[in-house]
Amino acid sequence: MESKLPDVGTSIFSTMTGLANEHGALNLSQGFPEFDTSSQLKHALSAHTLAGYNQYAPSPGLPVLQQEIAALVARRYQQDIDAAAQVTVTAGATEALFVAIQALVRKGDEVIVFDPAYDSYRPAVELAGGRTIHIPLCAPDYAIDWTQVSAAVTQKTRAIIINSPHNPSAKTLKQADLDALKALLNKHDIYLISDEVYEHITFDDAPHLSVLRDSELAARAFVVSSFGKTFHCTGWKMGYCIAPANLTVEFRKIHQFVNFSSFTPAQLALADMLRDAPEHVDELGLFYQQKRDVLVEALATSRFKILPSEGTYFLLLDYSDISDVDDVTFCQQLVEQIGVAAIPLSVFYDKPNGDRIIRLCFAKETETLIAAAEKLCQL
Ligand code: PMP
Ligand code: GLN
User: Fold this and answer.
1) Into how many domains does the chain fold?
2) Is the model's pTM score more than 0.95?
3) What pLDDT does 147 receive?
């Protein structure tokens, strides 16, 4: 059969986790917490299951969860959104991104993405008949040159995808970035997809500058988030999309034919958590900041150059003082020879730039972080 995605292979995350398991390595590659989700959330899930809430939810999501999401937006970003008309619960952020892209992108449309870019954007754009236009960002700042973005806009540009806090660079967008973005969207008829799955994981007292805080940006945006990141339950694949009512109508037309609705007991349990344990969300940044600091400190005597991590649960390491091999080979050597799995950064680029940088996930127990750092310090 002729492939619709001829350039796509198995995701790097599956590949590296497979290699880590094969070699019994410490797995700091694929981004997921090593620790469990809270017992409060697990008990809520089983209580709702036992109480018989096991049939389809309404396709947009259970009203109780839509309302708790709207309350979260009001509390964190001081914005009122219409829960029923604007919030759609999805099977993880991955579904929300896919559906938003299918809703927006038509044959021949162009979508601007910033490299390094999360791996699901491009295939979703291509399946919709569009083409991604890649703007490369450079280490160590990964700053966006908005003049370059402006120059990349054509008659065919349909949307821009941003991701802050950013996987894999761990950088966050600043107010100047959002101002420049707004000027661009106002000048051209372009939409925005804002991947904010790490919205509650920012460090050093920096607030997350959600697109939802700005009514002009929000008027053109699909804002995507993930309960997997927020509640340490990536395996539940629960997320959501917030968009203006007119865009949400189009989003839901497609969502109903992708998975129709998401896991009912999990929707109820997550609504309980948002209502009863707001401190979990409020303390998440500090929780991960401590893990970042443990890892950074434990790597202080290593020969890696450590790049700043402003948010997410990722840390980038430049190994150019240690080895000349390319990053894919370096990661293979790491897993096979010293027993640590990491992600090579080149896989997030359309045109890899020869950087010698790897990504570590620090959503791990302290002992795992220390043990991995000890091994990395031997290099
Ligand atoms: N976007 C980014 C930037 C991510 O890192 C991830 C998960 N790793 C996702 C989207 C997908 O989230 P989910 O697991 O909720 O589908
Ligand atoms: N987003 C996670 C990461 O960046 C992985 C998600 C996945 O495996 N699809 O590591």
Assistant:
1) 2
2) yes
3) 97
